[in-house]
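ENTRY TYPE: protein
WANTED: fold as tokens:
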Amino acid sequence: MQLLVPTNWDPALIAPLSRLEASIELYGVLPTSMIGSGGSGPDNVYMMGGQAEEYIKQAHSAGLKFDYLLNAPSMSNMEWDEKTHRELLEHLEWINSIEVDSVTVTIPYLVELIKRQFPHLKTRVSTIAHVDSVARAKSFELLGADSITLDFNINRDFKLLKAIRNAVSCELALLANNLCLYKCPYEYYHHDSLGHASQSYNPLNGCYVDYCVVRCTLDRLCDISQNIKFRCVRPEDIHACEEICIDVVKISGRSMPTEQILSAATAYSSRHYQGNLYDILNVLTPKIGLANSGSPGAQNHTIATPPKLYIDNQALEGFMDFFRKQNCLSECHQCNYCQKIANEVIQFDRNEVDEYVAMLNAFLDNLSSSRIFKVKAEVRSRRR
């Protein structure tokens, strides 16, 4: 099975990944780009186009492929403006010139555009496109998609996965280690916010608030069973994906440090991980403030180190078997399976969690009251 592995643009990733048993394809994107991306990358990396080109050459020399992300969920209709459309084509020409092996997109129009004007580029549909049905999978394949990364929420819906596999002939991929809420209510907003913040032409110059990550973190800490309900596929359960002919396992985490990326890739390549499953998951850390907003006094910083959960990976052996016969979407409200497992396999410091939850609630209060923007008093004054 092929592994899609995130890069934080550290050259130290390349050699160790090239020695793994699995076939490896790196994926990444510049911090800001014409189209943007649907996820956050490392905060401390400032790559230029020439540096990315050299990095991709090094990856190719080591026998690794490279997938370039173009997966923001929206371009704010800028793709239809003649000037911006010309810039879009120039951006695609550059991507083509640096000889990436594939591109990942979310916008359906980009699938058609790329397959028409850059037909040799392998085009992969992002999980952000929410391909969660046979109908959507067939539609994207008809548009020209060579590969589809399925919606993270259906990772354990084996009946649906088999139906999609039987309906399309294109490559299918699953995102394995994302720590997102099951059926997350913030998911669409989160990807859209990140997409706009990472677009080089966005007039707000990257202005972004980590509201969705704060909310997601709060929900997971207030309901520990959410850390079992989320649709992770453990390294030991990759065989279940292979049985239904899933072609690619994607590892999430472009913002993770190099050691963590290598640890996750090694675990999924070897199909085994001993210890805390939490250590190989893509756990987003909430940041407090307005990034690049120019707002007086606003800063973008981590509020504190989040409490670390211990999820005993060995204790989850056989966990996936339950989902081969369970329809979670329609029965989750009356089932306590995940809560029962969470009680057995997750350990945490209750005081530490309670303190962190209080800090997150205080930040959300500042957001909902508008105090973070320092405008509430001014608005009230004008109303008088």
In short: Residues 350-368 form the longest helix (19 residues). Residues 293-299 have pLDDT under 50 and may be disordered. The chain has one domain: 2-372.
